[in-house]
Amino acid sequence: MSAAPVTLCLWYEGDALDAATFYAQTFPDSAVIAVHGAPSDYPDGREGSVLTVDFTVLGLPCMGLNGGPAFKHSEAFSFQVATDTQEETDRYWNAIVGNGGQESACGWCKDKWGLSWQITPRALTDGMADPDPAVRKRVFEAMMTMGKIDIAAIEAARKG
Known about the structure:
Layout: E1 8-12, H1 16-26, E2 31-37, E3 50-57, E4 60-66, E5 78-83, H2 86-98, E6 102-103, E7 108-110, E8 116-121, H3 122-128, H4 133-143, H5 151-159
Parallel strand pairs: 1-4, 5-8
Antiparallel strand pairs: 2-3, 3-4, 6-7, 7-8
Helix pairs in contact: 4-5
């Protein structure tokens, strides 16, 4: 993965491989590429334990680092996943939340490792970009009442 001009480095507490495997099983164009063991003992691991995992999420190159508990994921960084259908929206949302994650508001959820995800139907982003300010307001106000985004409700708000 060193050929990529930018790779996201995500910090985990010893379970980077579990996270990468989950992402690879959940999202298309995602895979675990390589697993690298520590060449010697380090503060949060032993020689030979998994130190880094190279993987992709929806084609985006990532590296999971088993760096220990010093740094946590926060909502200041998230993956935004565009979806086309309610079925696709439900599948991603339910996979993340159903695997030890937690629901939040406005299409946001958090996986069990604390990483934030925005499961965002294109109907929502299209509605928020509508040239009519009244449409944008209705779509925004509808979204503000939701956890997981309901595409039919967003489309109804867009139509007025």
